[in-house]
Amino acid sequence: MTLLVADKLSHHYDSPSLFSRQGAKPVVDAVSLTLADNECVALVGRSGCGKSTLARLLMGLESPSSGVITFRQRAISTFSTAEWREFRRSVQWVQQDALSAVDPRHTLYQIISAPLRYLTSFSPLQCQLRVASLLQEVGLNPEDANKLPAQLSGGQLQRVCIARALAITPKLLILDEALSSLDIPLQLQLMTLLKKLFTQQGIACLFITHDLRLAAHFCERLVVMDEGKIIEQASVTEIARLQHPLSQQLYQAILPAMPHHY
């Protein structure tokens, strides 16, 4: 069943200039994208191609210049207050920089329980039990709940951000380069964990990355983006058959699983 649809989505940022009367170039240019329930789709492209702007639009954090976003066959621009609240419960976002995504003064318990406190009617005891369970699910200890972000490594803090995003069991998780700053063994460990959780909980995922290797390991379908446009789509089993020059560059940049020793 269709979960989220972007139909001919465009967006630009105004940048007035004394020397030009031309309109600003779209950061997202007529993008159409569909996500189904429990589907994991990779959005791939080089830095600056518009991937993160598209993520903010899909989250409803910015309004598109043109085009329509629908969630469960309802345009999000027409949502009532109650529908926006349900949308916030259903769609969660994990960013690349975990440190900037949390309040350094808050404990892990406060960070992870925030969506439970604001978007559910959980009691304090229910919040405590849910946070303890989430910490275990992402490979941390329940006793870590009283720690501050500065007491964790980057990889551990990213797990906390993932736990916070999973706290209210969303229907869609947007991972915006969320694993790119981690070393390869930790990337694979977290991807294995997430695939298990997604299967168990029926969560769809938009996995934003510039790394085709990660996309092939984690996703079912690949969408390649460049200069604000979607230039190619394929199943991950067909990565080697990608035709666009940029897609081929990304494919050729994939490192072997085990480097040769000389």
Structural class estimated from helices and strands: alpha/beta
Spatial gap, N to C terminus: 51 Å
What integer value in Å does the Rg equal? Answer: 19 Å
- What fraction strand? 15-25%
How helical, in percent, are the residues?
25-40%
CATH class membership of the domain at 2-100 and 172-252: Alpha Beta
Please count the beta strands (DSSP E, at least 2 residues each): 10
Tally of DSSP helical segments:
8
Q: Tell me the major beta sheet.
A: 6 strands, mixed
Brief synopsis:
The chain is α/β, with parallel strands linked by helices and 262 residues long. It is built from 8 helices and 10 strands. The chain has a 6-stranded mixed beta sheet, sandwiched between helices. A 4-stranded antiparallel beta sheet has the order 2-1-4-5, with helices on one face.
Q: What can you see in these coordinates?
A:
The protein has about 260 residues and is of the alpha/beta class. It has a domain at about 1-100 and about 170-250: 3-Layer(aba) Sandwich (Rossmann fold), CATH 3.40.50.300. Helices cover about 35% and strands about 25% of the residues. It has eight helices and ten strands. It has helices at about 50-60, 80-90, 110-120, 125-135, 155-165, 185-200, 210-220, 245-250, and strands spanning about 1-10, 30-35, 40-45, 65-70, 75, 90-95, 170-175, 205-210, 220-225, 230-235. The protein has a six-stranded mixed β-sheet, sandwiched between helices. Strands 2-1-4-5 form a four-stranded antiparallel β-sheet, with helices on one face. Helix 3 (about 110-120) crosses helix 4 (about 125-135) and helix 3 (about 110-120) packs parallel to helix 5 (about 155-165). It is globular, with a radius of gyration of 19 Å. The N and C termini lie far apart (about 50 Å). The model is unreliable at about 260 (pLDDT under 50).
